[in-house]
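Weekly sync, protein design subgroup
Attendees: M.S., D.O., the rotation student, P.L. (late)

Item 1: inverse folding check
M.S. brought a backbone from last month's batch and wanted to see whether the design step gives back something sensible before we order anything. D.O. pointed out we never logged the input encoding, so this time it goes straight into the notes. Structure tokens as presented (103 positions):
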């Protein structure tokens, strides 16, 4: 998924900013293929600022009770629709999402 800005953040810096282990970020990349970083000449992952915000969105969704797959699906839907990445506001928002999905 293309974004704006230059990739400058290492995976370890992103892990600290988002509050998840490096291994988790790698697993999310492999499993869900939504937030895919660039690579430098040595092959190390480099993330753009918008990708850091995307991972924060995933983390916030999970803190509200979503599983990783659901959080990444919500992220992909927001990116595709051009919606802002404000995470759902707690359990009530999750209930509304579940109700909307049932329609």
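Designed sequence read out in the meeting:
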């Amino acid at each position: 998924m293309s974004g704006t800005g230059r990739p400058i953040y290492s995976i370890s810096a992103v892990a600290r900013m988002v509050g998840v282990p490096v291994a988790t970020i790698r697993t999310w990349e492999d499993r869900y293929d939504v937030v895919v970083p660039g690579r430098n000449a040595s092959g190390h992952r480099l993330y753009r600022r918008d990708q850091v915000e995307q991972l924060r969105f995933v983390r916030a969704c999970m803190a509200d009770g979503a599983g990783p797959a659901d959080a990444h699906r919500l992220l992909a839907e927001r990116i595709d629709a051009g919606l802002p990445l404000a995470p759902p506001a707690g359990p009530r928002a999750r209930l509304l999402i579940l109700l909307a999905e049932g329609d």
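Discussion: The mean pLDDT is 87. Strands lie at 9-10, 38-39, 45-47.
Action: P.L. to compare against the previous round before Friday.
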